[in-house]
Hints:
Number of helices: 10
Shape: globular
Largest sheet: none
Distance between the termini: 19 Å
Structural class: mainly alpha
Radius of gyration: 16 Å
Number of strands: 0
Amino acid sequence: MSLAAFVLLGVTVLVAAFVQGSAGMGFAMMAAPIVSLVDPALIPVLLLVLMIPLNSYVAWRERNELDWRGVRWISVGRFAGTFLGLWILLVVSLYQLSLLIGISTVLAAVVALLAPAFQPNRTSLAAVGLVTGITETSTGVAGPPLALAYQHQSGPTLRATVAACFLVGELISLAVLGLGGQIDGGALLAALALLPFLVLGSFASRFTHHRLDGPLLRYLVLAFAIVSGVVVIIQA
């Protein structure tokens, strides 16, 4: 990896960590298209490893607002979806994976942007978990379905619950990917090298997260995801 590519990834990770720490979503949507432009082979392991400390911090920071019922049902569906995601990862090429990342990012962001308000029940929460299991294990992106489920809840509830769901899902995905022989040292070393950028972005979010409880940043994140996804599709 060239120095320019590393700096690009570092800045992307820093900004994405700040956005997710502030708004509760956006890390994978922002980072996955850029990472796939630099090196598709780093997907999804790099994102999954980096999101573990990020989501641990966010979930702990606003733990009093966690929706434990939602975490439970989403995690049930998430476990089942993981195996479908692994199957996708095993059968598609890096070129196809780049297209999948771009298309799934754009479609998920558009759905999350346009969906009307609703109160999720057990069935819808489990369905959200199933979809996130498929998309996160295969591409590292899982935020849009979770954002769709919690986008009309309070900021603290969205951030804490989505972070907890991410954390459970990331551990499941990494375990399944490890058993499937899909984890290599290159992605782990890249994650370690990018960790300082993640820490800086997460730390910066502590000064802004309590100010964000409205739709503006959500719209900006989803718009960025759409543009990034389109760029990946065009390049692929």
